[in-house]
Amino acid sequence: MLRYTLMRLGIFVGCLVVVWGLVYAGVFPRGLGDSNGMWIILLALLISAPISFVALWGERDRASAQVVQRVDRMKANLEASRSQEDVVDDAARAQGQTS
Question: Model confidence over 32-45: pLDDT tens digits?
Answer without folding.
Answer: 776 788 989 999 99
